[in-house]
């Protein structure tokens, strides 16, 4: 992989990583601690923010995939790119729909404590896998 491709791939990877860390592990939990933010307001904000985050993640994933696919990456770069991309697809296609249905119910007035959902825990677990894979991928690409 040439140094320009590795630099672009590494930069896109670290931007992606930074966005996930900032939104998922900082903004998301803190918004519910802000004065006056109710669960419905927090859910409404969260849906907008995560929809935007996932859209930007998809663009960054395409950039990283193109860089890795057009370079001469090592096995580690290919595997880590695949892990990050697959995790993102699972989050968007499999985990977010149940989260959206649950937030729809809460926004329509259902008590959030009435039906607990494990989907949020799955999303967080997948975020951890994605963060670790992006961190490793960024390091691999920068070393190339």
UniProtKB/TrEMBL annotation:
Keyword set includes Membrane: yes
Keywords for this protein: Membrane, Transmembrane, Transmembrane helix
Membrane listed as a keyword: yes
Residue intervals passing through the bilayer: 6-27, 48-69, 75-95, 121-143
Source species, domain of life: Bacteria
Protein name: Transmembrane protein
């Amino acid at each position: 992989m040439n140094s320009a491709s590795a630099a672009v791939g590494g930069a896109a990877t670290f931007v992606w990583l930074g966005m996930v860390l900032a939104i998922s592990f900082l903004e998301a939990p803190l918004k519910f601690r802000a004065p006056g933010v109710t669960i419905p307001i927090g859910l409404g904000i969260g849906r907008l923010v995560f929809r935007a985050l996932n859209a930007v993640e998809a663009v960054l994933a395409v950039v990283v995939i193109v860089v890795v696919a057009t370079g001469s990456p090592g096995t580690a770069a290919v595997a880590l790119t695949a892990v990050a991309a697959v995790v993102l697809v699972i989050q968007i296609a499999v985990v977010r729909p149940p989260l959206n249905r649950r937030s729809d119910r809460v926004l329509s007035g259902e008590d959030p404590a009435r039906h607990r959902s494990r989907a949020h825990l799955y999303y967080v677990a997948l975020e951890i896998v994605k963060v670790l894979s992006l961190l490793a991928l960024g390091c691999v690409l920068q070393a190339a």
